[in-house]
């Protein structure tokens, strides 16, 4: 029997739980509570009862208005670190962090992974990844993440989910990560694989509609709910194209709003062809979304043509925003880790100027490839300056970072 999640349409809280369960590959049924009668049947006062959203687990236990942390506790997934010290601490359980965990744990290093949300990262919101080596039929990001999680755990990696790294202290050969509740993770080396957070449109009403009509990333947990309604997808990259193809299976019509004058320069050829063959996807080039409107739910978006400066309004409750991301690395600045102007962590040769290591670098050797200006602290995947934003590259960098961790632990 599946878990059940009851909630109100447009509840950002319910959306967050749906997203978490979907990414975590927990089978569940979403039941929209729309009428007083339906609510009373559940022992609630109405669709606006503050006890919603409510989770019902297969063992009969009900949780009212639960946090994601409480759900992870119920699922038996919430943990404190089991060791006082690890060989490697990995921050982020996207493709880069999970790959680092597989290689690190399989090579005998005591490994802990700290993930602030669910495993999978951005890839976890992808409905179908078709260009990842070895999966010719494609696979969903949630499936890829779940396989990687299982693989890492089999080799002995410890994965702490719903835990966020918020600071770092680097002294006396120890890399100490500080979590949001003050828990300290002590390790001899650390890998930062925290990727990027989804970029927002920057429109006035945006915050109000997050989870209530506006969704970021591939929106994999939402597609089946859009029930023959029009959907608008913003973005002109591969992730937006994938989302359009996926939503087209459920929506009445999908409108892609693309800033560039063609998809061809920004989207892989196989996806351009696929989009051209899907009848209910329209691509509006040189356009942007300029207004979001609604009540407690998004009701319409206004799209502006950047050439003629004309506008059109589309009635929709579904706006999927896939416009890339920005790294979340404020902690690094506070800890003296060098970042580029956009906040990506700078590593290896990029730290050198005129053949000289960065100021304050304490060792005779130059920083290893993927090593930051703090010896023994590495960066892998999308969070790294100059990285290629692909699953395979993130996975490759995660594996490589472990090789340099070995070198660092052996030679300093
Ligand atoms: C919708 C979508 C579809 C995509 N499709 C494809 C595709 O088909 N093929 C392809 O090659 N690429 C695809 N990509 C790109 C690919 O997913 C990314 O390049 C890849 O996920 C990057 O991996 P990463 O591990 O570096 O970072 P991320 O995937 O961003 O993972 C970072 C993880 O770190 C966690 N984190 C962040 N901060 C902290 C913190 N302070 N403490 C603890 N944890 C933290 C995050 O919650 C996240 O789980 C897609 C991206 C999107 C958004």
Strand and helix layout:
Elements: E1 3-7, H1 12-23, E2 28-32, H2 36-41, E3 54-56, E4 62-64, H3 68-74, E5 86-91, H4 95-106, E6 111-114, H5 141-154, E7 158-160, E8 165-171, E9 174-179, E10 184-192, E11 197-198, H6 206-209, E12 214-216, E13 230-234, H7 238-248, E14 253-257, H8 269-277, E15 281-284, E16 287-294, E17 298-305, E18 311-315, E19 319-321, E20 325-326, H9 330-334, E21 377-379, H10 391-411
Parallel strand pairs: 1-2, 5-6, 5-10, 6-7, 10-21, 12-19, 13-14, 13-19, 14-15
Antiparallel strand pairs: 1-3, 3-4, 8-9, 9-10, 11-20, 16-17, 17-18
Helix pairs in contact: 4-5, 4-10, 7-8
The protein binds flavin-adenine dinucleotide.
What's the short story on this structure?
It contains 10 helices and 21 strands. It is an alpha/beta fold. The strands form 5 sheets. Strands 5, 6, 7, 8, 9, 10 and 21 form a 7-stranded mixed β-sheet that branches.
Number of strands: 21
- Count of DSSP H/I helices: 10
What portion of residues is helical? Answer: 10-25%
Provide the low-confidence segments as ranges: none
Largest sheet: 7 strands, mixed
Shape: globular
Small molecules held by this entry? flavin-adenine dinucleotide
Description:
- By secondary structure, the chain is α/β, with parallel strands linked by helices.
- It is built from ten helices and 21 strands.
- It has helices at 12-23, 36-41, 68-74, 95-106, 141-154, 206-209, 238-248, 269-277, 330-334, 391-411; strands at residues 3-7, 28-32, 54-56, 62-64, 86-91, 111-114, 158-160, 165-171, 174-179, 184-192, 197-198, 214-216, 230-234, 253-257, 281-284, 287-294, 298-305, 311-315, 319-321, 325-326, 377-379.
- Strands 5, 6, 7, 8, 9, 10 and 21 form a seven-stranded mixed β-sheet that branches. A five-stranded parallel β-sheet has the order 12-19-13-14-15, with helices on one face.
- Strand 9 and strand 10 form a beta hairpin.
- Helix 4 packs parallel to helix 5 and helix 7 runs parallel beside helix 8.
- The radius of gyration is 22 Å and the shape is globular.
- It binds flavin-adenine dinucleotide.
């Amino acid at each position: 029997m599946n878990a059940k999640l009851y909630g109100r349409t447009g509840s950002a809280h319910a959306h967050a739980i749906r997203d978490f369960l979907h990414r975590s590959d927990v089978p569940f049924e979403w039941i929209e509570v729309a009428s007083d009668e339906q609510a009373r049947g559940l022992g609630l006062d109405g669709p606006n009862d503050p006890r919603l959203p409510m989770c019902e687990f297969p063992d009969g236990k009900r949780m009212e208005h639960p946090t994601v942390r409480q759900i992870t506790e119920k699922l038996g997934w919430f943990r404190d670190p089991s060791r006082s010290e690890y060989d490697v601490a990995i921050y982020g359980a996207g493709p880069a962090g999970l790959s680092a965990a597989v290689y690190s744990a399989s090579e005998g290093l005591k490994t802990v992974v700290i993930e602030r949300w669910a495993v999978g990262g951005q890839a976890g919101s992808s409905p179908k990844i078709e260009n990842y080596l070895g999966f010719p039929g494609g696979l969903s990001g949630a499936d890829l993440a779940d396989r990687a999680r299982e693989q890492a755990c089999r080799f002995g990696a410890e994965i702490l989910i719903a835990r966020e790294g918020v600071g770092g202290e680097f002294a006396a050969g120890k890399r100490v990560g500080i979590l949001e509740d003050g828990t300290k993770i002590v390790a001899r080396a650390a890998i930062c694989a925290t990727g990027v957070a989804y970029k927002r449109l920057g429109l006035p009403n945006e915050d109000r509609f997050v989870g209530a009509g506006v969704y970021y990333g591939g929106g994999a947990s939402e597609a089946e709910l859009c029930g023959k309604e029009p959907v608008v997808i913003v973005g002109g990259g591969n992730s937006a194209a994938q989302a359009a193809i996926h939503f087209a299976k459920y929506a009445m019509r999908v409108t892609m709003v693309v800033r560039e004058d063609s998809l061809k320069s920004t989207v892989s050829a196989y996806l351009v062809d696929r989009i051209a063959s899907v009848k209910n996807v329209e691509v509006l080039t040189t356009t942007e979304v300029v207004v979001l409107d609604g009540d407690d739910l998004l009701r319409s978006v206004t799209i502006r043509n950047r050439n003629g400066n004309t506008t059109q309004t589309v009635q929709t409750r579904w706006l999927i925003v896939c416009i890339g991301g920005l790294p979340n690395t404020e902690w690094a600045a506070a800890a003296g880790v060098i970042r580029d102007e956009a906040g990506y962590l700078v590593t290896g040769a990029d730290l050198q100027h005129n053949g000289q290591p960065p100021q304050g670098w304490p060792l005779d050797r130059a920083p290893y490839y993927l090593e930051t200006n703090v010896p023994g602290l590495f960066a892998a995947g999308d969070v790294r300056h100059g990285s290629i934003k692909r699953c395979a590259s993130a996975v490759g960098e995660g594996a490589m970072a472990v090789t340099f961790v070995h070198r660092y632990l052996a030679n300093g």
